[in-house]
Specification:
Helix content: 25-40%
Number of helices: 13
Number of domains: 4
Oligomer: single chain
Distance between the termini: 36 Å
Largest sheet: 8 strands, mixed
Structural class: alpha+beta
CATH topology of the largest domain: Immunoglobulin-like
Number of strands: 29
Mean pLDDT: 94
CATH class of the largest domain: Mainly Beta
Bound molecules: zinc ion
CATH superfamily of the largest domain: tricorn interacting facor f3 domain
C-alpha cells in the first residue's frame, strides 16, 4: 500500500440498518475457509453486478450458524452442503458487517457454502468494487484493503484467512477482464457476453483479491527477473504510456529476488492504472493497482530531468509494491495489529533497493532523512505506537497510519545495523521460507532473527513497536590513569535500545542498553580516544545529546560515513548551544549536498 491519499474516505454504516445479533469485529476461530470460488457478472455501465460464491469451510466443531463478512450485498439465495446433504440455508444479519449462514445442525468437518447475491458498483466510492468513466468509457475497479472485499463478495475478510481463489468474470465481449491469476480461458456466452476464467491463486487474504473490467489496453512488458511476465494495463488508447512502468519492473524485480533468495511467487505481474482509488498504490498479487499519475507517463523523444525524476520515483514505488510480494503477500501478518510486517518492510526494502543506485557513501541517506521526519512527530500527542489493536471499523481506518510505514522502516534499519546486514538478511530469508504462503507475527520475525543472529530482538521490538518516543542517549569517555578507558552511555528513556558505537581507533561494536546507564570497557591497551560516536552506521532510532562536544568527532569528520554525518547533523540540531552551531557550520560545507543542506537548514 502506498499512502498517497489518506485512508479514511470509506462510507460507514451497516447494511442491515438494525443489528439483530451482537457480533464482534472479528470472525470466530471455529470456521476456517479453505477455498473460495467467485463468479461475477459485470457490466461497468451498470451500477449493480451479480455474483455467486462457493466457499469450502472447515468447521472445528459442531455449529448452527457460520458467520462471514458481507457489506452492502443483497443476498438472493444461500445453501449449505455437508457430506451428501445440500439444502437451502437461512441468512441471519449480524451487526458488524457480517452475515450468518444458519443451518441449525452442522457437525465438525468440511462444509460448502453457496451464496448468490447482487452488489453495487458505486461511481463515487474509492474502495470496494467501484466504477469510473474514463474518456467516455465505463470501467470497473477494486480497492479492498483492509476491509472492503466484503462489499464485492461474502468472504472471511481477515488477513489470517488465506485461501486459494478461483475467480471467473462474465463480461461484455468487447471488454477485457483481469484478476490476480493469469487468464486460463475465455468462453463465448449468449447475448454478447463471454466468461473469462482465471487460474487458481496462491493462498491470499480476501483484501488482496482484485479485479478489473472494461475496454482496457495492455502494454506487454515482456519477462522480468526469473521469467515473470509483466504487463501494464491502461485505459483505452494509453498503452504506450506503460513503457516506463515495465522498464522499472525489469530493474526492480531481479533485485528483490536476489535479496530474498526467493523467485516472485505469483505467476504474472500486471500493473493496473486506476483513475481513482483510496491509495496511491495497492500490492494485490499479480494485479498491483496504482493511481494513473503514479504509473503512466507519455513516451518522449528524449529523456529529460522530469522523466528521470518520474522514473526514479516509479522504481521506488514499485520497489515498495513489489517488495510486498514477499513481505505482506508471500508472508502475511496474522492480524492487522502487525501490519508493520507489511508496510514497515515494504518501506524499508524500497529504500534498500534504491540504495543500490547510489554511491556507497550515500547509502542510507534517504532512509535517515525519512527517519528524521518520523522522529520529529514521534511523541504521544502527534503519533501512536507502531502496533495498536485493530478491533473496529473505526480503528481499521488507522491501519495504514504513517507511523506503521516510517517508524516500522526505521526500526528495521536499526535491527539490520545491530544484527549485521548478512545475518539480518539470512533471518529474513528464514522467516519468509518458514511462513511461505501463510501468516506470521512479530514474534515469528523475532524468532527467525534470533536464530540467524544469536541476538534476541524481542525486547527491542517491544520497546520500539509498542511505545511512542525517541530514546535519548548521551555518552562520556572515562579515561583514568592506570585503568583501561571506558565509555559511559546514559539513556534517559525506558526500554531496550541497541546502541552501536565506535571511537577513535576503536572499531564499531554494539550493546543493548537496558538500564539508565552502562559503562563499556574499551579494548585493553586502547589509549584514551580523541572522540567517540554513539550511532555507528547512523542506523539507530535514537538521539545522541552532545553534552560535551569536545568528545564529538568534529576533528575527524572524514572518518565518518555519510550516514553517520547526516545523523550527527540531526543530533546537533537539537543541541542548541554555540559549540553545536560551530560544528554545524563545518558540516554545512560537506561535499554531499544532502548533508550540507541539512546542516544549513539546522543553522537557520
Ligand atoms: Zn505498502
Amino acid at each position: 500500500m502506498w499512502r498517497a491519499l489518506a485512508y479514511g474516505t470509506l462510507v460507514a454504516g451497516s447494511v442491515f440498518g438494525q443489528a439483530l445479533l451482537n457480533q464482534s469485529f472479528y470472525l470466530s476461530n471455529g470456521a476456517i475457509p479453505r477455498k473460495e470460488t467467485v463468479q461475477l457478472t459485470i457490466d461497468p455501465s451498470r451500477e449493480t453486478f451479480e455474483g455467486s460464491v462457493s466457499i469450502d469451510v472447515e468447521l472445528k466443531g459442531p455449529a448452527s450458524i457460520i458467520w462471514l463478512n458481507a457489506k452492502n450485498l443483497t443476498i438472493g439465495s444461500a445453501s449449505i452442503e455437508q457430506g451428501d446433504t445440500a439444502h437451502p440455508a437461512k441468512i441471519v444479519p449480524g451487526s458488524n458487517e457480517s452475515i450468518g449462514i444458519d443451518d441449525g445442525q452442522l457437525h465438525a468437518g468440511s462444509v460448502t457454502i453457496r451464496i448468490a447475491y447482487q452488489g453495487r458498483l458505486d461511481d463515487k466510492a474509492l474502495s470496494g468494487p467501484y466504477r469510473r468513466k474514463v474518456e467516455g468509457e465505463w470501467y470497473a475497479y477494486t480497492t479492498f484493503a483492509p476491509i472492503e472485499a466484503r462489499r464485492a463478495f461474502p468472504c472471511f475478510d481477515e488477513p489470517r484467512f488465506k485461501t486459494p481463489w478461483d475467480i471467473s468474470i462474465r463480461v461484455k465481449r468487447d471488454h477485457k477482464a483481469f484478476s490476480n491469476g493469469r487468464q486460463i480461458s475465455e468462453t463465448e456466452e449468449p447475448n454478447g457476453w463471454k466468461l473469462v476464467t482465471f487460474a487458481t491463486t496462491e493462498p491470499l487474504p480476501a483484501e488482496m483479491v482484485a479485479f478489473a473490467v472494461g475496454p482496457f489496453d495492455v502494454y506487454d512488458g515482456g519477462a522480468a527477473g526469473h521469467g515473470t511476465p509483466v504487463r501494464v494495463i491502461t485505459a483505452k488508447g494509453h498503452a504506450a504510456e506503460g513503457h516506463a512502468a515495465a522498464q522499472a519492473t525489469a530493474a526492480i524485480l531481479p533485485r528483490l529476488e536476489a535479496y530474498t533468495g526467493i523467485p516472485y511467487a505469483f505467476g504474472k505481474l500486471d500493473h493496473l492504472a486506476l483513475p481513482a482509488g483510496a491509495f496511491g498504490a495497492v500490492e494485490n498479487p499479480g494485479l498491483i493497482t496504482y493511481r494513473t499519475r503514479n504509473l503512466l507517463i507519455s513516451p518522449r523523444e528524449a529523456p529529460n530531468q522530469e522523466t528521470a525524476t518520474f522514473t526514479r520515483s516509479l522504481r521506488a514505488l514499485q520497489a515498495h509494491e513489489i517488495g510486498h510480494q514477499w513481505f505482506g503477500n508471500l508472508v502475511t501478518q496474522a492480524s492487522w495489529d502487525d501490519v508493520w510486517l507489511s508496510e514497515g518492510f515494504a518501506t524499508w526494502i524500497s529504500a534498500k533497493m534504491m540504495d543500490q543506485e547510489v554511491s556507497p557513501e550515500r547509502v542510507h541517506l534517504a532512509a535517515i532523512a525519512a527517519r528524521e521526519r518520523m522522529m520529529a512527530v514521534d511523541y504521544p500527542a502527534r503519533s501512536r505506537p507502531v502496533r495498536i489493536a485493530i478491533n473496529s471499523r473505526d480503528t481499521a481506518r488507522d491501519v495504514y497510519n504513517r507511523v506503521v510505514y516510517e517508524k516500522g522502516a526505521a526500526i528495521l534499519l536499526m535491527l539490520e545495523g545491530w544484527l549485521g546486514e548478512d545475518r539480518f538478511r539470512d533471518g529474513l530469508r528464514a522467516y519468509l521460507n518458514e511462513h511461505r504462503f501463510g501468516n506470521a507475527s512479530t514474534d515469528d520475525l523475532a524468532a527467525a532473527l534470533r536464530a540467524a543472529s544469536g541476538n534476541d530482538p524481542s525486547r527491542v521490538l517491544n520497546t520500539f513497536l509498542n511505545t511512542t518516543g525517541v530514546p535519548e542517549l548521551s555518552g562520556q569517555l572515562l579515561c583514568e590513569r592506570d585503568s583501561a578507558p571506558r565509555l559511559r552511555v546514559t539513556k534517559s528513556t525506558p526500554g531496550s535500545v541497541p546502541v552501536c558505537w565506535r571511537a577513535d581507533r576503536v572499531a564499531s561494536s554494539c550493546t543493548v542498553l537496558e538500564g539508565p546507564s552502562t559503562e563499556i570497557a574499551l579494548p585493553t591497551g586502547t589509549a584514551c580516544p580523541a572522540w567517540f560516536y554513539l550511532n555507528s552506521g547512523g542506523t539507530g532510532y535514537y538521539r545522541t545529546h552532545w553534552t560535551r562536544l569536545s568528545e564529538a568527532p568534529m576533528q575527524a569528520l572524514s572518518e565518518l560515513s555519510g550516514a553517520e554525518k547526516l545523523t550527527l547533523v540531526y543530533d546537533l540540531r537539537v543541541t542548541k548551544n554555540a559549540s553545536a552551531q560551530a560544528a554545524l557550520a563545518r558540516l554545512a560545507s560537506d561535499a554531499d549536498p544532502e548533508i550540507s543542506s541539512a546542516a544549513r537548514e539546522a543553522l537557520k
